[in-house]
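Quick one:
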Amino acid sequence: MRSEKVNRRIRPALIAVAGLVLAYGYSRANEGPRAAAAATRPASRPTTTPPAAPFKVRLPGSTAMREMLPVPAGVLDVRRPDGRVEHKPIKAFYLARTELTWDQWDPWYLFSDVPEAQRRRFPVADAESRPSRQYSPMDHGFGHNGFPVMNQHFNAAQMYCRWLSAKSGRKFRLPTEEEWEYVARAGAPTRQWTADELKRIAWFDKNADERTHEVAQLKPNAWGFYDLLGNVGEWVMTTDGTPVVAGGAFTDPAEKVQVTARAKFDKSWDKSDDMDPPSRWWLYDAPFAGVRVVCDP
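Output:
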């Protein structure tokens, strides 16, 4: 009799435990496909805190400042043509909050970082480290201070970084393609932005009115960077050493203003250049070619 009473008290508890076990098993069985799908979706995932606080660089011979934001180390998931997903480790670095603007570029171009008597009187070997002087406005009249540089040759972008490194004592360079895409995704899987969505974050053919716009006027991405898509494209270096322009520009339709958008140099980018050899500083027919810089920690 006593045993029967104990069993009556224990039986409901056993039934409840069995129900929980069955529910857990059902949940785990259905979790597998979802977890597998999530694991194969290309994304960027930070794995550490950022390297340090943001910092600014005052450009010599100017009041312009270059603001750099920290980017944490992490992993970039890259889907290959055969469907495989590679997990690319990304080291911590700093990236410019905005695209390079004319007022940040002028001190280098105009030699305003050196005494006035020496400006553009350098020996040839030194003069070759800065762009040739232009007699028509390279900003196309769109705007100067606060507007992104345009028509930039890859060599000019690299040489600017070299100059900024020498003047600041820090290592500046162009981003790799993987670094740029890691920040452009900002911790999210790759996605295709619609035209309506892009209007909030990027200048492209539907909202730019055929011109560039002052930087940081639209919404930043989740990590605080402006204009990674649209306005002007940005030079990056691929893993095989090929420079490409990433992110699309004000001249492009929505389908070409995406995290995955890339453009390789084409002869049409400087077809109106009548110099022989062609300029290593300007791409006269590529108003979409701009610059954003990286600084190593």
